[in-house]
User: Fold this.
Amino acid sequence: MAEAAYDTDNIFAKILRGEIPSHRVYEDEAVIAFMDVMPQGPGHTLVVPKAPSRNLLDADPSTFGPLFTVVQKVALAVKEAFGADGVTVMQFNEPASGQTVYHLHVHVIPRFDDIPLKPHTGGMEKPEILAGNAEKIRTALGN
Ligand code: 5GP
Assistant:
C-alpha cells in the first residue's frame, strides 16, 4: 500500500518552525534535538533532521550522516548527564511499527540496569522536569 505524503503540519514540523515550544538541547544546520514530552525514561530525547520526510523509508539518504552524528553526540551526553548504564536508540516507520508523529526522528533514551522502559507515548512529564533534564543534557553537550 502506498504511504501517505509528508504533512507539513505535523507536530515536529511545527516545532522546527518554532510554532510550538520544545525543550531544545541541540541545534545545527541540519538537525535539532529536544525532550520527548511523554518520556519512556528520564532524559528521553528526540533527534530530528530538519529535512522533511515521514520517516526513514522516504528520507533522502544524505539525511542519515548528519542525523546519526547527532544521535551519537546526544547518546553520549544523556549517558553522562544521567549516569546511565546504557542507551536505547529507537526509530519507527509507519503506524504498524508504532510511529505516531510523521516526521523522521530517532529516540535516544538513557537506560539503567534492571529498569524497564515506560510505555511508548504514556504520560506527559511536567514541564519543569523536562526543563531540568534538558539543562543537564545541554551541560553534558557543552552548550
Ligand atoms: P513515534 O511514536 O512517532 O516514534 O514518536 C513520537 C514521539 O513524540 C513520542 O515518543 C511522543 O511522546 C512524542 N511527542 C508527541 N507529541 C509531542 C510534542 O508535542 N512535543 C514533544 N517534544 N514530543 C512529542
Q: What stands out?
A: The first strand starts at residue 24 and ends at 27. The mean pLDDT is 96. Residues 6 and 74 are 26 Å apart (CA to CA). The chain has one domain: 11-141.
